[in-house]
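User: Show me sequence and structure for the first protein, then do the same for the second.

Assistant: Starting with the first protein.
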Amino acid sequence: MDSPAALRIIAALQTTAPTLRRALIFLLAFSGGFIIMSLELLGGRILAPYFGSSIYVWGSIITIFMAALSFGYLIGGRLSSLDPNLAKFSSIFLVAAVTIVPLILLGEQIMEAVFLRIEDPRYGSLVSAAVMFGLPSIVLGMISPYSVRLQVQYAEHSGAIAGLLYFVSTIGSALGTLLTSFYFVLWFEMNTLLAAMSIALGVLGLMGMLGSRLLDSQTVRA
């Protein structure tokens, strides 16, 4: 038989589960925006030793990130229509964490291989950015539309919820841009920052998985 204390804890979880679930989704959306822009800024630093830091290089990086994110938005929106839940949403972060690992292990080899084969810095930087950051950006782009779907319960509230979530995500992007450009690149090596991003995404994914087990079950009981 459950003790009175345990019953009180269960009752409290049942009452607060929807609020905690929304807060967790907002945290994940904020963190996704933070890491997207942090990774984009690091892309410029990673490509600079090989192709410089001209407008061509930054144009290539921005093009690849925007194109990859657009595909991520499309895929995330499609996936969010297939029995959306917090566990599946959290798995996006785990997959994103894995896609960053090759940048740490094979980044220099990839950059050198492209640099030796494509002399034009415009197309060399474009290919390098696509190979290095295309897949991580696609996966990270799936976060925003999926988070909107998890929060929307009624069609009449969809606009307000989407606006709030994109506001939170964009604030995360702004903060990621500021902290990475002002501090992180001065304090840490590139691989250290990439490893920190991968670990952070993994932790966020596991946090979401744990939250799914605790909060969704209490929501159902309520």
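Switching to the second protein now.
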Amino acid sequence: MRAMPTIVTTLAIAAGLAATMQHAHAQSCQQLWVERNQYYKNHGYCFKTQQAIAYFGNGGCTVNDQDAVPLTAAERARINQIVQQERAMGCSDGGGGAPGMTCNQLWVARNSIYKARGYCFKTQRAIGYFGNGGCVYQNEGDIPFSSAERAQIAQIQAQERAMGCQ
């Protein structure tokens, strides 16, 4: 009978690990990217990529070196787990058009770039999701995109076309 508490504890630990792994497998590339980068955002990291800046912003950031972000041991362990899962799923490093992204996630990634540059959305869907507060550009052609942003938008649009997104 003494073995019973050990067996119960072992089963509980195994069930917890299985639930964690199932959660990780259920997450898309975009969800994993967001979770991973949220740890950095929470500790004041100043993002470098346009997608991360568009998604998280750099307001209040204080840490420029990713290796200097004061993560806890548990956060580092979870980030390592996420990175392994991203690799296993063939995810890119959060760039637009990552494998496994849904049409809606691609739409959000693409329009986040527009929002970050001050575009005034026209559709109810985009206005409802992003709002138009602080917008300054009524015409897409007036938005001062960098060449990297233009390439990222083109990549996302190509994937949206390939997937038949509406």
